[in-house]
């Protein structure tokens, strides 16, 4: 979910109400997605199926608005 578009929703797995918040990473990190996690010395952008979710933010925590269902351990977000 975009930071300004957080809305209450039901979990698609169990139907319980999800709690809004933020998915975040350690300082200087960025979120990405790929078919497999690349090795530490590989350029992540070259990984098969690479999608950049957030920009790298030096000295800041990267965050994405999200909804979580702790009952079934599901997190949903849009990028």
Automatic annotation (TrEMBL):
<protein>
    <recommendedName>
        <fullName>DUF6487 domain-containing protein</fullName>
    </recommendedName>
</protein>
<dbReference type="Pfam" id="PF20097">
    <property type="entry name" value="DUF6487"/>
</dbReference>
<feature type="domain" description="DUF6487">
    <location>
        <begin position="11"/>
        <end position="79"/>
    </location>
</feature>
<dbReference type="InterPro" id="IPR045504">
    <property type="entry name" value="DUF6487"/>
</dbReference>
């Amino acid at each position: 979910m975009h930071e300004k578009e957080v809305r209450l929703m039901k979990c698609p797995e169990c139907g319980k109400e999800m709690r809004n918040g933020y998915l975040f990473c350690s300082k200087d990190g960025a979120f990405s997605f790929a078919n497999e996690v690349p090795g530490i010395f590989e350029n992540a952008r070259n990984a098969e199926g690479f999608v950049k979710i957030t920009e790298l933010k030096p000295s800041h925590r990267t965050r994405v608005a999200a909804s979580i269902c702790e009952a079934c351990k599901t997190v949903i977000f849009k990028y």
